Amino acid sequence: MDVRAQVSMVFHLDKCIGCHTCSIACKNIWTDRKGAEYMWWNNVETKPGTGFPRRWEDQAIYRGGWEKDGDTIVLKGAGKAKGLLNLFHNPALPVLDDYYEPYTYQYLNLIEAPAGEDQPTARPVSLITGRPMDIKMGPNWDDDLSGTPDYARQDPNLADLSLSEREALFTIERLAFFYLPRICNHCLNPACVASCPSGALYKRGEDGIVLINQDVCRAWRMCVTACPYKKTYFNWSTGKSEKCILCYPRLEAGLAPACMHSCVGRIRYLGVLLYDAEQLHAAASAPEAELVARQLDLILDPDDPAVAAAARASGVPESTLEAARRSPVYAFVKRFGLALPLHAEFRTLPMLFYVPPLSPVMASLRAGDGEDRPRHAVAKRWDEAGLYDTRMEELFADGACSRLSLRYLARLFAVGDEAAVAMRLRRLLAVRLYRRQQTVGDLDAARLSAALDAAGYTAETAEAVYRLTALAKFDERFVVPPAHRETAIEALEATDERKGAAGFGFNRAPRRP
After folding, report:
1. pLDDT at 194
2. For tag attachment on the chain, is the N or C end more exposed, with fewer CB atoms within 10 Å?
3. Which residue in 171, 355, 14 sits closest to 163, CA to CA?
């Protein structure tokens, strides 16, 4: 058993309000520079929607991640042979229009324009060329636009839904969306690291953070192709690739990353996970239906004496072991069984997990034209004008009433395994019922007991989930392990010059050989 430590994250989507405060905090600290204007290391997407860059999930276009090749896996769109073939033309590389051409406004024109009959305007101008432009795309261009034909209906995750399911999702009485914040997943099997011809990308041994050595990067941009989440960017000014560094200078000082520190909804959690590195290849190359389960099996119990002994033998410091025992990420992923990885089928073993959202229940049983729909625990009443009355026969309806398709959520978080997502939603509902009974006491005891049993929870577990979700203090949401750079063993065998490379130097031009 080769036990290693990984700094990991959980985003609780049931709490995200889509305020983009996280994105602005990251932008102001890390990417407010020439050549990085279009980069959003942290972005918040509306789902259903095409995301940023557009249709990033469609690997038939972008060829990111790994694919199974017999008993092993190979990079889908990068690697030595494929990289050589695409050296001068890479059709799988996103272009600027897939992101957006960065722009600003001529604000001074509002003040300095000469007197005239028309109100002066602040015309948009390109930050690249400086010329006036028409804005056609942005990082949150499809915000809150679920249901539109231009964005939500082009979501690649809708491909598994039947035509009737897709149309039902966009009918007005069922219309719903949720927010999906994304940062670099700092994967256990990062395709970006494997694809880099110059060896500039590496994974830190002590905490698993994936970084780019700016002195070594030679702008091959294979990392941009290889990352299926499209969280590696090319700086057109410096000629270097850049990506989220998980605010490691803050982590080394015992502080939470900026996006997590500033999160208004308190949806973000950070902690240490222990995993068995000997099982990485087997987990990443497992059959598609087993990918999520095999990834979760990699995560080890820090309270297990055998795991602790193996971790010490592998050089994991005692302080990191203690942080792992208090990790909120371990609680959500393993102890509570609530969080799942995003698109595990990319086989990168992402270390950012999501608690899927409980969407609003539907206010009607069937359409007004008599079209049959499944009956749920929602009362359909019509007034004389033919409008819906949204009162329900039961305060909390079951998951069958969810406006969001279970199949859609399963495509995002469970490689199509609807049962895995349904169990997470069942557990979230059980916690809601438990707290309703605790605070109001108007629920039938038998129903509460049945809900807890169906979720595999006890009342004590439901209380623990509630406290970590709603009442957790700062040091409970962010359990940052002490930095041990003096004893770190880098995952990449590097020269003395490259050891400990931190990813700084973003403003430096490429160093010529």
Report:
1. 93
2. C
3. 171
